[in-house]
């Protein structure tokens, strides 16, 4: 019996091409997905990795073998696949390994209307079906058709955020040789925005740097380019362009929490009193700012399936994560880095202040960023932290996702285990950088001790 435990993750399928993921496995995953979601069709997109077109074709074969039609949209960003799923009201499959190195590929799955498929909402059943052998379908095969949606996707985004009347802007955009190089030219076509492209050539071998803008080393080129050309801002996309990372005119990074707060305020201006979702690792400045602008902040666990589920339950208009995923009710509650970037450019272009001044009010505290520690006994280290801090006066503790501890001076940290690796992930926020460093050293001494 096959064992897919190494590639079926909490939110998607991800593995090494040839070793863990091949066309036979992908074909069976397509068949299992078709049985899970039923007809009439499944929409399929893929990124620019060398293996992606072949995998997308194999997946379509598996779907067709179960009597379900397949609609190929070809090259796509992940949020473009979500757009297709929403517009066509069909389940979808996106072939990408996001920001992972070139040797990897994977599949992000959704139900009709871009509803998430994760471990608790279908992935476990798909894995079990493939491991045990997908039942043969004896009826007529489904058909394969092709559809191009790039122009419609871009027009839909431009309807949500009107950039036509902003002041002229010069923006450096680093696509990291990923799918932003495909979507950005169409989205910004005809707008008063001069896009200075960086690494727009689609290349799944990532010859310039990894397509992971949350790692500081991968935005060094963008920071230098912004300063060199006197750009108003810089935007970096990850490999499948569902996340965006922003730097201001000085080349300084703007935290995803500040972007979350900025977009939340804009969305609340359109819909006063609306609900805004933020995960528990975003800055506590986010719920403060949401409440100050008349919105209702709701805190969730980390991960797109939890965000999307809570958005559906609460009718939230927007949600943001510390990892630069941004979710919009008007985009089928799916995450789209492009739409978040457009909000930032609208906020910048609707007045004359520089981005650093605009975002300053949304960045109230100092943060550590995510610090990973390799540990064999994750549960034991978490228990040691709980014991060390739990008995202190004025300390509050919750275990919604990992362990979150808030100290009497307002500083807090979250320590949580990775879903896929032997890692503990630490995030800290405090009043200033010195306080963050002191708390970091104290916590890591226990975690790594």
From TrEMBL:
Residues 370-444 form the Alpha-D-phosphohexomutase C-terminal domain. It comes from the Bacteria. It is an enzyme of class 5 (isomerase). It holds the Pfam family PGM_PMM_III. Keywords: Isomerase, Magnesium, Metal-binding, Phosphoprotein. Residues 8-131, 153-251, 259-364 form the Alpha-D-phosphohexomutase alpha/beta/alpha domain. Its EC number is 5.4.2.8. GO terms for biological process: carbohydrate metabolic process. InterPro entries: A-D-PHexomutase_a/b/a-I, A-D-PHexomutase_a/b/a-I/II/III, A-D-PHexomutase_a/b/a-II, A-D-PHexomutase_a/b/a-III, A-D-PHexomutase_C, A-D-PHexomutase_C_sf, Alpha-D-phosphohexomutase_SF. Its cofactor is Mg(2+). One of its GO terms (molecular function) is phosphomannomutase activity. Belongs to the phosphohexose mutase family. PANTHER family: PHOSPHOMANNOMUTASE (PTHR43771). NCBIfam families: PRK09542.1 (NF007088). This is Phosphomannomutase.
């Amino acid at each position: 019996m096959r064992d897919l435990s190494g590639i079926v993750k909490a939110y998607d399928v991800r593995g090494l091409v040839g070793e863990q993921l091949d066309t036979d496995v992908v074909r069976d995953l397509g068949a299992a997905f078709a049985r899970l979601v039923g007809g009439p069709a499944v929409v399929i997109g893929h990124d620019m990795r060398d293996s992606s077109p072949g995998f997308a074709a194999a997946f379509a074969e598996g779907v067709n073998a179960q009597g379900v039609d397949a609609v190929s949209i070809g090259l796509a960003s992940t949020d473009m696949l979500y757009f297709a799923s929403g517009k066509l009201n069909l389940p979808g499959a996106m072939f990408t390994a996001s920001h992972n190195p070139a040797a990897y590929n994977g599949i992000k799955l959704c139900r009709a209307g871009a509803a998430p498929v994760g471990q608790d909402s279908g992935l476990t059943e798909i894995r079990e079906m493939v491991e045990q052998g997908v039942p043969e379908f004896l009826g007529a095969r489904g058909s394969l058709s092709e559809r191009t949606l790039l122009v419609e996707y871009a027009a839909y985004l431009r309807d949500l955020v009107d950039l036509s009347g902003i002041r002229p802007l010069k923006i450096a955009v680093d696509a990291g040789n990923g799918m932003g190089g495909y979507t950005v030219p169409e989205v910004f076509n005809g707008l008063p925005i001069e896009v200075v492209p960086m690494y727009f050539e689609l290349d799944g071998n990532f010859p310039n740097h990894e397509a992971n803008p949350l790692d500081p080393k991968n935005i060094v080129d963008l920071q230098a380019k912004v300063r060199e050309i006197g750009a108003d801002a810089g935007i970096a996309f990850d490999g499948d362009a569902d996340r965006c990372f922003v730097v201001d005119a000085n080349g300084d990074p703007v935290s995803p929490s500040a972007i979350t707060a900025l977009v939340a305020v804009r969305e609340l201006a359109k819909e006063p009193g609306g609900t805004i979702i933020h995960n528990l690792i975003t800055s506590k400045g986010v719920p403060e700012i949401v409440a100050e602008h008349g919105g209702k902040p709701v805190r969730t666990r980390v991960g797109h399936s939890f965000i999307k589920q809570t958005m559906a339950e609460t009718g939230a208009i927007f949600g943001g994560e510390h990892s630069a995923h941004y979710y919009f009710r008007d985009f089928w509650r799916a995450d789209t880095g492009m739409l978040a970037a457009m909000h930032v450019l609208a906020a910048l272009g609707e007045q004359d202040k520089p981005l650093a001044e605009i975002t300053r009010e949304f960045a109230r505290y100092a943060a550590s960023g995510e610090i990973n520690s390799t540990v064999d006994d994750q549960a034991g280290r978490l228990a040691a932290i709980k014991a060390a801090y739990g008995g202190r006066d004025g300390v509050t503790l919750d275990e919604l996702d990992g362990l979150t501890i808030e100290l009497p001076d307002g500083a807090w940290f979250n320590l949580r285990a990775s879903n896929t690796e032997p890692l503990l992930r630490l995030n800290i926020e405090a009043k200033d950088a010195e306080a963050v460093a002191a708390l970091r050293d104290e916590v890591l001494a226990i975690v790594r001790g």
